[in-house]
Design a protein that fits this description.
Blueprint (H helix, E strand, L loop, with lengths): L5 E3 H8 L3 H9 L6 E3 L2 E5 H15 L1
Length: 60
C-alpha cells in the first residue's frame, strides 16, 4: 500500500478553483476517484494529479 495524502472536498475546490457541486459531480461520474471514511469524503492527492494531467492531455 502506498502512502498518499487525502484531500477534503474543500481542498480540491480550492486547488481546482471549482465549486462544491462541480467537484461532487466529478466524484459522482467517477472522473475523480474518492474514498469515504465514515461520513467524510476524501480524494487522494495522486488521483487529483492524475485528473489534472488527463485534462492537460485533452487540452493539448
Amino acid at each position: 500500500m502506498r502512502n498518499d495524502e487525502l484531500l477534503t472536498v474543500a481542498e480540491v475546490m480550492a486547488r481546482l478553483r471549482l465549486g462544491r457541486s462541480t467537484v461532487y459531480d466529478l466524484i459522482r461520474t467517477r472522473r475523480l476517484p474518492s474514498v469515504t471514511i465514515g461520513r467524510c469524503r476524501r480524494i487522494p492527492a495522486s488521483a487529483l494529479g492524475d485528473f489534472i494531467a488527463e485534462q492537460m492531455e485533452r487540452a493539448a
